[in-house]
Amino acid sequence: MGPDCPHWVYTPFHTICSGGHYTASATIQDTMIGLIHTFMLDSFISNTNHTPTRILLCRLASFYYQGLVKKKYNKHEIAHAHLLDVENFSSVIDLMSFCNLIIFINVLDFKTYMYNKYIAANNVKELSHERLAAIEAFDFNAVVPKDRMRYQHARGQAYALIDWLFKSVNIIDKQTKQPVKDPRTSLWIPYISQQASALLAYRNKAEEAKLKGAPGCTPATLKRQILLCFQDSLLEDFVNDAIELEHEVFTFLEPHRYEATR
Fold first, then answer.
1. CA separation (Å) from 150 to 74, 193, 231?
2. 53-99 per-position pLDDT tens digit
3. Do 164 and 68 contact (CB within 8 A), yes or no?
């Protein structure tokens, strides 16, 4: 059963069921979409947000980094078969999507919007101005220091993967039959900016429909976390411009226009 498949368990008598989740490179775009839906709609569509998934994604970032950037695995090793094959543009989109997901890992973590276990989302207004100022200044939340460092490390690997990708792969525009100049700027930056905008548009629509997502996550707090991702970076202006356009699509807009060669 692939990612995002609705499923139920029915038994004719009381039963203890066990199961697991497998993240595959070939379906990583579907995994990304599923995590976004779960974050935005929470219990409306799922009975769990699978907290350990974030750790697994960080491990996967390390695996891709070691395998693709550092070339740790040769073609005869079993691990090599699990790496993304960037010989085609579909796999290029897969890798870009995965890197975007890692860059947004704090944004899509439920704990980012929980100030701590003693403060419920509905009593934040009761906090003192000093406490709220500290939360604003230091991005204080329920993500423990160990996970913060894990996320920082994974984001660094995601940016390194993006850098490696466009130095290792030639992207051809099928319409012009010419190589795409600076695909990082012309393809990836618009893609991640579009997704940043779509996240905020999704949250706004869910709010209007009175559908609760991650506790404590509002359009305002979500926008703040998105902007923190790109603060003082080369992507900051691109993301701000995309947010103004209010994109609503998470997938790459022209997947069949390009081809990839190495």
1. 27, 24, 20
2. 889 999 999 999 999 999 999 988 999 989 998 999 999 999 999 99
3. yes
> Which residue did the predictor score with more confidence, 140 or 116?
140
* pTM confidence score: 0.88
Tell me the CA end-to-end span of the chain in Å, nearest whole number.
32
Distance (Å) of CA 112 to CA 54, 109, 214, 234: 12, 6, 9, 24
Task: Specify the length of the chain in residues.
Answer: 262
d(CA 108, CA 92): 23
The amino acid that residue 197 corresponds to is: S
Burial class (CB in 10 A: 0-12, 13-18, 19+), 71: exposed
Looking at the chain, the whole-number percentage of residues with pLDDT higher than 90 is: 64
What sign has the CA pseudo-torsion 253, 25, 85, 181? positive
Q: Which residues of 46-59 are buried (b: 16+ CB within 10 A; e: fewer)?
A: eeebeeebbeebbe
Distance CA 140, CA 137 (A): 8
Q: List the strands of the sheet with 170-173, edge to edge.
A: 178-179, 170-173, 258-261
- Average pLDDT (39-62) is 85
Tokens of 213: 């997502």
As a 3-state breakdown, the chain gives helix, strand, coil percent values, each rounded to 5, of 55, 5, 40
d(CA 31, CA 55): 14
The 3-state DSSP class for residue 131 equals helix
Over residues 172-214, the pLDDT tens digits come to: 999 999 999 999 999 999 999 999 999 999 999 999 999 988 9
**H-type alpha helices, 21-169:** 28-41, 52-64, 89-103, 129-138, 145-168
